[in-house]
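Hi F.,

I've been meaning to write this up properly since the lab meeting, where we talked about keeping a consistent format for the predictions we share between groups. The idea is simple: the sequence comes first, exactly as it goes in, then the structure tokens exactly as they come out, then a line or two of notes. No screenshots and no reformatting. I'm using this chain as the first example so we have something concrete to point to.
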Amino acid sequence: MIHPPESAIDSIDREILAELQTNARIAFAELGRRVGLSTPAVIERVKRLEENRIILGYRAMVDPAKVGLPVRAFVKVTIAGDKLTKFATLTQRIPEVLECHRVTGAESFVVQVAVRDVGHMEEVIDAMMPYVATNTSMILASPVPWNSILPSHRNDKQPRKRRPSQTS
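Output, unedited:
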């Protein structure tokens, strides 16, 4: 049974999520040690968080520059109403698109792309052009490239004491 997030999340789940966002490859035994639960209890909680679609997946974060795509930009896109769905589908087929968000305001979408150089940027923007007017902002630096949604509420990284009768 799928539960809404409000009833599915408690303080231990929040700690588990914070730890997994920092290191999704952490062993269940170590995760249990950090949040004060047994390994089976942690496995059960992670499974429930996945089943409830609170955890949507696990990914490797790759540095685009180190795989030949050092230029990143946000392409702000304005589209006429009947072309919104077509554009959203198009962006899913462009491999240089890292993210695409439907937004409010003057633009319809904000698309983050990673490319080799300015010429490659032109090709990617041209691939979007049948549907859109664009405004592009190059990314110079990313002081916060990604942040945890639920940071740990604990100030220290010391493990909590295991709760005697806690199993899930």
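Notes:
The chain has six helices and four strands.
Residues 5-51 form a domain with the Arc Repressor Mutant, subunit A fold (CATH 1.10.10.10).

If this format works for you, I'll send the rest the same way.

G.
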